[in-house]
């Protein structure tokens, strides 16, 4: 009896089976993680904040440790510096934000009536007739139609207060959890590696490192980009004498943590505020400022600050944000892009290494865009002006930072 021919067909079937089981295992793992998150969703804000703190501070603590400072001292020093900076910023910005918030609450009826009148005039220019209610009529209609609902909500003031206190308590827990994880992070990493089977240890560490690089770059980068864009937008709106410039600029910067959302929201709010309180010329200036800030972010700030990013198509980002909002509300929107990035790294790695036969480095280079370490904004501007936009070589495993 002749032996069955061995060769490419058998290898292809074996490879397809391996890919199928790998994808099935990945989906089951993601489903299990999702189930756990749903069961413990009350802890999700604290966990997300703790992970963000770890990713932001771990590179600093690690470098201080390499310079001879004990890890616990580096962690304490990092917390003291960050706490001092946040306290100083709070003393500088919070009083102005409170004043502008109170002024906005007092002026909101006039602002709404002005925007309603502008909307009616704009519709009339296109031959349309719309009748928007003024603020008092709208308020009366809302009170009449939703009086029972608001009464029920105010009747549950105790439950709302307890929920608020619970949220504050969880957010206060996050820095404490992050501090203890920072202290023992190298030990935790070594113990986690020891639990992996030796056969898959190197590959698992490689994929986990790539995921940590992308996630850490995203978290650290988005925080820095949000701060930079918030300052730039606020200064620009202040320069054109836009009312509530600091409040709108900070909203734009904060929402920039969600990709593709912050600059648009800040620009729209600024234009509407200019139309309601100033004139069309100011609205045009505000729109141009928002557009210029967005272009500076897209071409210079984000590519420089986001050291490692996963290539995600804007259409996929928008769909992911919508899906995240449907599944998890606000936190689903916040986590949509990082989760999509990590899923793409895992699935893309298995597809390129198991199906396409690429090496680990080739798979990483195809999935992750890494900027050269230490490249400044000025250097990037010079490189862009000279036309030298070649993709940098992937960094070695030893140069990749992850928590």
Average pLDDT, all residues: 77
**Roughly what percent helix?**
over 70%
State the major sheet. Answer: 2 strands, antiparallel
Output the strand order for the largest sheet: 1-2
Q: From the helix content, strand content and strand pairing, which structural class follows?
A: mainly alpha
Number of helices: 12
Unreliable sequence segments: 153-158, 372-378, 388-401
Strand content: under 5%
Order of helices and strands: HHHHHHHHHEHHEH
The termini sit apart by: 58 Å
Shape: globular
Write a structural description.
This protein has 403 residues and is an all-alpha fold. The chain has a domain at 41-134 and 160-195. The protein has helices at 8-39, 44-66, 71-125, 135-155, 157-194, 198-239, 245-255, 262-277, 280-305, 314-355, 360-367, 377-386; strands at 308-310, 368-370.
Can you give keywords for this protein?
single chain; 403 residues; mainly alpha; 12 helices; 80% helix; disordered C terminus
